[in-house]
Design goal:
Number of strands of chain B: 0
Number of strands of chain A: 0
Number of helices of chain A: 14
Number of helices of chain B: 7
Radius of gyration of chain B: 16 Å
Radius of gyration of chain A: 19 Å
Helix content of chain A: over 70%
Distance between the termini of chain A: 60 Å
Number of domains of chain B: 1
CATH topology of chain A: Farnesyl Diphosphate Synthase
Structural class of chain B: mainly alpha
Structural class of chain A: mainly alpha
Shape of chain A: globular
Order of helices and strands of chain A: HHHHHHHHHHHHHH
Strand content of chain B: under 5%
Oligomer: heterodimer
Shape of chain B: globular
Chain lengths: 292, 202
């Protein structure tokens, strides 16, 4: 009988676990947290910034792994996700659960040690994602995305709270911007993969209310996200040049959202989906510039 | 449609970044009207570059492309006229608005005559010649630094790009479609470099 050397096993296991943290999504959420922290424009505490980044990364990764663990049955039914290591059975389910919990506890615990208000917001994000969104609502109602959105809005609020010590208007607006941006992202996704979601029995906006209503929701939420970003940017006091850049990028987002509503093509849908991510990342970089 | 290469995407990304730079810092010292005009011009360039990166050359099939691509020369030339030809400001502003509406209308309402082609040729022609000639004349007269002539070269490049795309969309391509798509990202970058350098050092 031949056994693989342990180092190979460990390497292949890491390879199986890495996709479970959805690196692009986690990276984008982490970017919002860093932008929230830097948006206050106070002097940057490098150690605090590093601590925040790692704790947030762990908390987001932990909640994503928990989500993958719980949704492994529906992921297995969807073409897009059936190869995920939690869904395909390549990883032991109990192990996935404990790894997810351990990383979550490490991330949230670290956040609580850094600062209590910051830690509480990070915990709220984890709780909304894992308990409210994943365990409770995702399989019951298409409106679950609102709670997923609230969870997604917590990293930027957490970053802001870490510098201000409390939830201020700018923090609330930034969180609202993310909350309203998330439907632009997830609803375009649910239109693109509507068959997959339908096969898995997940209620989505397109399957519950039809595509026209979904596209109208995307357009409206894009407008609201743009308004929130614009208002927050003005309050933060970023320079006129950066405000112009945000206005240009926002105009692009709004035009694409309305084009998607009018044209109703796969191409426009995909374009909006990708542009929305670039828009959010660019906005976060611009807000972070306040610190420099 | 030809597939976009990684190099094409890199060139378009640099174009977008340069356009973003111009919006943020390149026009800060100007008055309100040119700032708005240049922000629109470089903004359209930035968003168009991003959409090309995301959707590939397929996006050029959209009928909206002709209308949107008119905005860049119109807005750029309006900014230049507003800054340097004060007596023509109102007249050129009217031309810009009427010209844009004419292109949009003739491209939206189905027509079998040559009016859409003539409209686009007139609008692009006047805007393109303004961007090409005005900076060069100003540089030669010594009103502006000689580097400002680079804006004119950018204007010539945007004119070439506009002509190639317009004739392609009209079904009478000057060069083959593959060649046009191959040179387009590089042409856009070169044009943007000329504009940004011309405004900075001119």
């Amino acid at each position: 009988m031949s056994t693989q050397p342990p180092i190979v096993n460990r390497k292949s296991k890491i390879k199986l676990y890495l996709p479970l943290i959805k690196s692009s999504q986690t990276g984008l959420l982490l970017a919002t947290g860093i932008a929230g922290y830097l948006s206050a424009g106070t002097s940057i505490g490098l150690l605090t910034l590093l601590g925040m980044s790692f704790s947030l990364f762990l908390a987001i990764s932990g909640s994503t792994i928990m989500n993958m663990w719980y949704d492994r049955d529906i992921d297995a039914k969807m073409k897009r996700t059936h190869k995920r290591s939690a869904a395909s059975g390549e990883l032991n389910q109990q192990e996935v659960f404990w790894v997810g919990m351990a990383i979550s506890i490490l991330g949230v615990g670290w956040a609580l040690i850094i600062a209590l208000p910051y830690g509480l917001v990070v915990f709220a994000g984890w709780f909304f994602d894992v308990v409210i969104y994943t365990l409770w609502l995702k399989r019951r109602t298409a409106w679950s995305i609102v709670w997923g959105g609230i969870s997604g809005a917590m990293p930027i609020l957490a970053g802001r709270v870490l510098t201000t010590g409390h939830i201020d208007l700018v923090g609330a607006l930034l969180a609202l911007a993310i909350l309203f941006w998330i439907p632009t992202h997830t609803l375009t996704f649910s239109i693109k993969f509507r068959e997959d979601y339908s096969n898995a029995g997940i209620p989505t906006f397109p399957s519950t209310y039809g595509e026209t209503f979904t596209r109208a929701t995307i357009a409206i939420s894009s407008v609201l996200a743009a308004l929130a970003i614009g208002w927050a940017s003005t309050l933060i006091g970023i320079s006129a040049g950066y405000l112009r850049l945000i206005a240009v990028l926002t105009a692009g987002l709004l035009l694409l959202a309305f084009a998607t509503f009018r044209v109703q093509s796969e191409q426009a849908n995909f374009g909006l989906f990708k542009y929305a991510s670039i828009y959010m990342l660019s906005s976060m970089i611009i807000l972070a510039m306040k610190a420099f | 449609m030809m597939k976009m290469t990684a190099l094409d995407r890199v060139l378009l990304l640099i174009t977008g970044l340069l356009a973003a730079y111009q919006i943020v810092v390149g026009i800060d010292q100007l008055s309100t009207a040119p700032i708005i005009a240049y922000t629109i011009a470089f903004g359209v360039l930035l968003v168009a570059g991003l959409l090309l990166i995301i959707l590939g050359f397929d996006v050029l099939d959209s009928p909206v492309v002709v209308i949107v691509s008119t905005i860049i020369p119109l807005a750029l030339s309006l900014g230049l006229v507003w800054e340097h030809l004060a007596s023509f400001r109102t007249l050129y502003l009217i031309f810009t608005i009427v010209g844009f509406l004419a292109v949009a209308l003739t491209r939206t309402i189905p027509m079998k005559n040559k009016l859409p082609t003539i409209t686009i040729a007139v609008v692009h022609g006047i805007a393109g010649m303004t961007i090409f000639l005005l900076p060069i004349v100003l540089a030669f007269q010594g009103v502006m630094n000689s580097a400002f002539a680079l804006v004119g070269i950018g204007g010539a490049l945007i004119g070439i790009g506009g002509l190639l795309l317009s004739f392609l969309k009209a079904g009478k391509p000057i060069l083959s479609k593959d060649v046009i798509l191959k040179v387009l990202p590089g042409l856009l970058l070169l044009m943007t470099v000329c504009f940004v350098a011309g405004f900075k050092f001119g």
